[in-house]
Structures are given as structure tokens and as C-alpha cells.
Amino acid sequence: MLLRRFLAILPLTLTLGFFSGCATADPNAQSRVAMLAEINGEPEGNYYIGRRYYKVDYKFWGFIRKPHQPWSTAQLVMFNEQQKLAPDRELGKLGSDNGYEYKLYGSFSGETIYEPASNGFYPEFVLKGYELRSASPASIFKIPGALDPERRVIAKPY
Predict the structure, then answer these.
(1) CA-CA 20 to 30 A from 82: which of 1, 8, 89, 148?
(2) What would the 3-class secondary structure string for 44-89 be?
């Protein structure tokens, strides 16, 4: 009798256990919706959107995407600063703008640059100018602590 009762509720127990794991909400969902709305509202033009991604041990600059494109399409780049210094270097405070978002003017050179600390190859972006868009934009990373300059983790944006 006890075995029969157990077998009768077993499917219900398994079903509830399976679906209980699906009920987790994305804690960044609201900010991601706002970020996507902002991306959709970006004006047309000959510029890029960049996010500074400073890591103490690496020499890449950050992620760059085209207007109206999601951050998942962004490329991690090396800056060519022969025409214009990066914002933090211009201030003499390397990494002080970690996580900032910029409107960038310039172009990709077509060259690929080797960065030895990450053992990676990154496209070269020739910087010609920039405008600060936000010093505290919504996060574009799934990994908590992705912006920690000391962590040797290279996160990918949403």
C-alpha cells in the first residue's frame, strides 16, 4: 500500500522538481530591456559604441560595436592611438574609465594585433575621437565581477 502511494505521487514530485529550476528570474532583465531600448534609439551616423574593458594584465582597450547592433556582436579591440590617445591615457590615469561607454570615431585598420598576456589576436581600431556617453552604463556581461581589473577573466558581452 505504501509503495503504491509512493508510485502515485512520484511523477508529480519529479515534475515539480524539474520546473522549480526554471523559475529563476534574470536579475539584470530590467536593465537589459532598458539597454536594448537605448540601442534601438541610437542615431544613425559614422561612429561606433565602445565599452572600456580594463584588465591590469592585458593591453586590449575594450569592446566596440556598430550603432543599433547588440553587444553580442561587439569585438574586443586594440587601439591605435597615433592620432588620438585613449581617454584614460589622455588623463594619465590608466584604467580609470573601466566600464565607461563612449561614442567612438575612427575605423578598423584591417590589421590584427597580438596581445601576449592573453595569447589572443585582436582587431586594430584607429581612434580619431570620442565622446563619453555614460560613466555608469548597464552591465553588458553575464559573469558577475567581469569588470574587476584584477580578474584574469575575459568575459563576452550579452
Answers:
(1) 148
(2) CCCCEEEEECCCCCCCCCEEEECCCCCHHHCEEEEEECCCCCCHHH
Q: Are strands 75-80 and 48-52 parallel, antiparallel or unpaired?
A: unpaired
Please return the burial class of 25, using the count of CB atoms within 10 Å of its CB with bins 0-12, 13-18 and 19+. Answer: exposed
pLDDT at 61 over 60: yes
Q: Write down the pTM of the prediction.
A: 0.81
Ramachandran sector of residue 41 (left: φ over 0; alpha: ψ -120 to 50; beta: rest): alpha
Instruction: Give the integer Cα–Cα distance in Å for 86 and 61.
Output: 8
pLDDT of residue 14: 46
- DSSP lists the bridge partners of residue 151 as none
The sign one gets for the Cα dihedral 116, 110, 140, 87 is: positive
Q: Which residues is 105 bridged to in the sheet?
A: 129
